[in-house]
Amino acid sequence: MTAVPFRDHFSAVAAQYAQARPDYPPALFDWIASIAPARDRCWEAGCGSGQASRGLARVFARVHATDPSAAQIGNARGPANVDFAVEPGEACSLADASADAACVAQALHWFELPRFFAECERVLRPGGVLVAWGYQDIELDADIADANAALQARIRDDWPPERRFIDEGYASFDFPFEPIAAPAFELRAEWTLPRLLGYFSSYSASKRHRERRGEDPVALHAEALAAAWGDPLRERTVRWPLFVHARRKPAAAAAPGCAKRD
User: Fold this and answer.
1) Which DSSP state fits 242?
2) Measuring CA to CA, which residue among 23, 28, 26 is closest to residue 48?
3) How far apart are CA 14 and CA 10, in angstroms?
4) What's residue 261's pLDDT?
5) How many alpha carbons fall within 13 Å on the CB side of residue 226?
6) Cα–Cα distance for residue pair 151/216, rounded to 1 Å
7) What is the spatial distance between Cα 29 and Cα 58, in angstroms, rounded to a whole number?
8) Quick one: pLDDT at residue 257?
9) pLDDT at 162
10) Cα gap 89→114, rounded to integer Å
11) What number of other Cβ atoms are within 10 A of residue 117's Cβ?
12) Is 60 in contact with 38 (CB distance < 8 Å)?
């Protein structure tokens, strides 16, 4: 299998990424399982350190979780029914028509889309589903919003160009297959201030800013965030509305001479 070059923004912070990223709502995975033709196997492309893999493992018998970053896979954790592999999304090792679902969590904007969608066409069974989702900026309580906005403004120019696809919710992507209407989902967590600062530090934009400017943007704004937060060990609700795109591969056409009879 020929390796596909990829833009690696996360290997250098893989361990931090694994600890900092929030988990997705169980209702999302229940819904994916409900629209899949079966629950035998799911392919998760761009799995990172396994945040979505663990949720998918609860509703599918097997999960083939792949990422082109060996560092991310090295930090990935999941139950026994998850197989982690260093593979690009554009070249999966699964057999033809072997997966009930192909899922991508907060990673589709890194892929070479025509090649990935062709791989979904190959790997998905007839009637299988492609589900891609993501989240945009974090939503915080109103009394923390200004301090958060100042940090986000500082690192705005440090995001890679692909970030714009997240901002637009993948609206410009030319997805294959017929769409499936998705309900509204929200990612929600109860975090302390140190947990939030760890999340901000795991941003690829924070890493880029440190390299480009020689300063830690999170440290520069930590005092203002702490003043707004209050007791740093107080848990506050943090939120990310999810956008979800779901598509179904056509079911196999009836064989010649097998037309339905009344």
Assistant:
1) E
2) 23
3) 6
4) 33
5) 10
6) 11
7) 8
8) 43
9) 84
10) 11
11) 22
12) no
Six-digit token string for 198: 């760890």
In this prediction, residue 33 carries a pLDDT of 98
Q: What separation in angstroms does the CA of 117 have from each of 57, 89, 124, 144, 169?
A: 23, 9, 10, 40, 18
pLDDT of residue 9: 40
- CA dihedral (107, 108, 112, 113) in degrees, to 10, reads 170
The two three-digit tokens of residue 239, written as one number? 């939120």
Which helix (H) or strand (E) covers residue 33, if one does?
helix 26-35
Instruction: Label residue 89 exposed, middle or buried (CB < 10 Å: 0-12, 13-18, 19+).
Output: buried
- Which residues lie closer than 8 Å to 188 by C-beta, 6 or more apart? 25, 237, 238, 239, 240
102: left (phi over 0), alpha (psi -120 to 50) or beta: beta
d(CA 91, CA 211): 31
> In this structure, is the dihedral angle defined by the CA atoms of residues 169, 5, 77 and 17, taken in order, positive or negative?
negative
Identify the burial level of 181 via C-beta atoms within 10 angstroms of its C-beta, where 0-12 means exposed, 13-18 middle and 19 or more buried. exposed
Mean pLDDT by 10 residues, the chain (262 residues): 41 50 90 98 95 96 96 92 96 97 95 96 98 92 96 93 90 96 94 94 92 95 97 95 96 49 32
